[in-house]
Amino acid sequence: MPKAPPPDDSVPESSHPSRRTFGRIAYGAIALAAIGTATTYSVKAASAKGDLSSNLTLIAPAGAGGGWDGFARETQQAMRVDRLANNAQVVNIPGAGGTIGLGKFSTMHGQADTILATGTAMVGGIALNKSPVGFDNTTLLARVAEDYDVLIAAADSPHNTIDDVIGAWKKDPKGFVWTGGSAGSVDHLTIAQLALLGGISASDITYIPKSGGGEAIQTLLSGTTDFASCGFNEVSDQIDAGRVKAIGVAAPERIKGFEDVPTMSEQGYKVTLTNWRGWLGAPDITGDESAQLLDVLTKTRDSAAWKDALDRNKWTDVWQTGEEFAEFIKEDTSRVEKLLKELGL
C-alpha cells in the first residue's frame, strides 16, 4: 500500500518511483485526521464535517481553454444541471504539465471540498519536471474519461496510410517534421510510440511543440511541419471541414461519426497511449470525506448531462476507482517514463 504523505516541511525524493506514483486510495479505508491549511489562491476552506457537495472547488491544473479546463468545466456543468453540487467552482492553476497545480494541492491537507483534475499529462509532467510531489501526496479518487490522438496531415498530402507515413519517415527521420502539444505531452509520446513500432529511433524525432490543435493545423497548412498528432476532439471540426486529412486514430475502435478514419491498430501499429483524465482528492482527508466525493463523482458520471459531454467531446468512459485506479497509474507511469527515456527527455 502507498505510504502516507510526508509532513509539510519534508520533501519526497523525486527519484523514488513509489513516492511519485501511488496515491492514497479513496474507497472507504480509514484515512488520516484532516487538518486544513491555507493556500495562496482563492478557494474556500474545507469543512471537516458536513455535506461536501454544498461547496466544491474543481482545480484545472492548466490555463483556460485547454483539455483539463474543458474537462473541469464539463464536470462543473453536469454537477450544476443535475444539482449534484450546489456551488461548484473551477479554478485554473497552469504550468509544468500540471505539476504547479499539483504542488499547491499537495499542501492542502484535509481540504476535502477541493479536488484536482489529473491525467496522462500530469504523469508525464511529474517525470519530465522531476517533481518533488506526485500522486502519493494526494488521495486517488477516480479515472473518469479518456480521448485519443489522431494523426493528421494537410488535405493535399500524398500520404494516406500509416505505412505511407512510416515509409517516408524512414527515408529522412530527422528531416521529417512533426507537431503537436507540449514536449512530453500525449501528442509527443504518441509519435514516439509510433516511431518505435515503425523501427525508427525516438531520438531522431524532429518535433515542434504547439499550444493546441489550432496552432498545429496552421503549421501543416503553411508547410512548416509534415504531420501532427492531436487530440481528436481538438481537430475533429477541421477534419470534417476537409481542411486536414485524418490518417489514423490511436483508439481501440473507430470514432463515432468518423467511421471512415481507420485506427492505427487496424493498420498494424498498436499505439496504446490514451489521454485519460480523472480526479484527485487532497491529502489526509477522512474515509467519510473520500466516500462523499466519490458519491458526487459517481452521480455526475451517471448523469445525462455528463453522457452528453462524453458524446460531444468524443470522450470514452473509463471509470476506475480504488486498487484498479492505483494499478492503472502504476502501469501508465511505467509506459510514460519509458517513452520519455527513449526521447532523451
TrEMBL record:
SUPFAM superfamilies: Periplasmic binding protein-like II. It comes from the Bacteria. Belongs to the UPF0065 (bug) family. PANTHER family: TRICARBOXYLATE-BINDING PROTEIN (PTHR42928), UPF0065 PROTEIN YFLP (PTHR42928:SF3). This is Tricarboxylic transporter. It comes from Brevibacterium linens.
